[in-house]
Design goal:
The protein is mainly alpha-helical. It has 2 domains: 171 residues, Tetracycline Repressor, domain 2, CATH 1.10.357; 128 residues, Four Helix Bundle (Hemerythrin (Met), subunit A) (Up-down Bundle). The N and C termini lie far apart (70 Å).
Length: 323
Amino acid sequence: MTTAIGSKSGKTRGNVRGKVRNKVRVFMELGKLRVVEMWLGAPLAWSLWDRDFAFSGRGLALLVLAVVTAIGISAAALALDDVTGATDGLDENNHGGGHRAAVRKPLLDGTISLREARVFAGVCATVGLAALVTAVLIAPHRPWWMIALTLGGVFLALNYSYFLKLSYVGGGEVVTLVATALVMLFPYGLATGELTLVVVAQALLIGVWELQTATYANCLDRVGDARFGRLTWPARLPWKGIARMHIGLYAVATVLLVLAVVGTERAWLLGLLALPLLVTQVQQARKGLGERDFGSARALGFRVFRFGFGALMVNNLAMMAVG
């Protein structure tokens, strides 16, 4: 009898743990927490800091707080994006019925409620803002312009598809670029009190890489977005305009990469490290522009970002090691 009761109790605890793990996975899907690109700009900024400060307790704490800020605000913005998409029917149109099944939408699955999604977004935003304030308080520098830019970026991110719904009125791409760049600029500005050409070029570069991925994703949804009044660039442009848009982004990315290479002390190293990135971008352009396979081009965009991040990170750490 005692054994049976103990077995039943253990099974109950196992079921509870299983439900908790499932709920955590659902919230991770809602906030896109597996998309590491949304916080990688912070360690990239760290790799450009003075070596002594970078490895000090204060420097490492600032890095962690910058990462938490980026994750919190991004998760809140993406969760609110799903709330709006579920409320107005856009996500059901673009992702329901098996369409783009690789992009999981917990609100469509019924595994989470709108109220839970809003609470999750509120908690994430609160955590992100608390980390931001703490980062400012412990930072060696507090330039007002950097704080103002960062708060502006937070405002834009949280209004991406909620409140002002900037992605519905043609501002989504600007928000993506600015928010991604600020993830790098914010901690660098707090650590050094200034911005250099190198850090701005690298920040804009990761912003453009992220934007390329986002615009290919928007190409997949352009018909549904146009129908529901979400005015992304692909939803507003004919095919020729979409092609010119992507060509323009490739041109901007190339110019920024050249600036990053020229601005480093070991141009040959960054140039060599960037080769896998350039090869992947050629593949991406062939898939996206040549074959109009936007799904594959979007998937290659994540690889572009990670190859590019890796090249910049290794180059920056090499300079830190000898600096």
